[in-house]
Every structure is written in structure tokens, then in C-alpha cells.
Design brief:
It is built from 2 helices and 2 strands. The chain has 97 residues and is mainly alpha-helical. The N and C termini lie far apart (64 Å).
Length: 97
């Protein structure tokens, strides 16, 4: 993420979400040791922990599992929204005799 985009995401997405969900609890954010992660955006209620160098390959299988679960949930919710908004009557029309 570019620095401006990261700062914007940090301030408009991450911090409001953390504060809404966890109120007074302090949260941990675990990130890899990438030079693109800007840690100048600090907050008292979010503590940043860096993974040691060269451990990304070890955590990749876990990432794949987490991403697969999120994709399934997203598709299920999106399908439910589409079905709810689809203009089809719930009762089938009467059959002619």
C-alpha cells in the first residue's frame, strides 16, 4: 500500500472499526516486516507487532485458509442480498386448469 493510501486506510477504516468493536480494549495488529508498512500511524489502542524476517512463507498456508473462509462468507452474503432484491414473487403464479 502506498503511504498516503495506508494512512488513509489506517485513519478511516482500521481505527474506527477497532474502536467500535472493542471500545476500551487494546488490540494487536500483526504485520510482516515489509518496508511498505508505515508505522508512523500509531494509536494508543492498537499495538503493532512485526513478524520476524523470512517468516511470510511459513504463514502463507494459514493466509490461504483464512482467505478461503472469508470468500465463502462474502459470496453467501452477496447471494442473499441479490435474492432479497430480485423482483420475483415468492409464491408461484396459479396454474391454469
Amino acid at each position: 500500500m502506498e503511504t498516503i493510501g495506508y494512512a488513509r486506510w489506517w485513519n478511516t477504516v482500521l481505527l474506527p472499526t477497532v474502536r467500535e468493536r472493542h471500545r476500551v480494549a487494546k488490540c494487536a495488529m500483526i504485520i510482516d516486516n515489509s518496508s511498505t508498512d508505515d508505522v508512523e500511524n500509531m494509536a494508543d489502542d492498537v499495538e503493532i507487532f512485526f513478524l520476524p524476517p523470512n517468516t511470510t512463507a511459513v504463514s502463507q498456508p494459514m493466509d490461504a485458509g483464512v482467505i478461503a473462509v472469508l470468500e465463502r462468507r462474502y459470496r453467501r452474503r452477496l447471494s442473499a442480498i441479490v435474492v432479497q432484491r430480485f423482483p420475483v414473487p415468492l409464491d408461484p403464479p396459479p396454474r391454469p386448469k
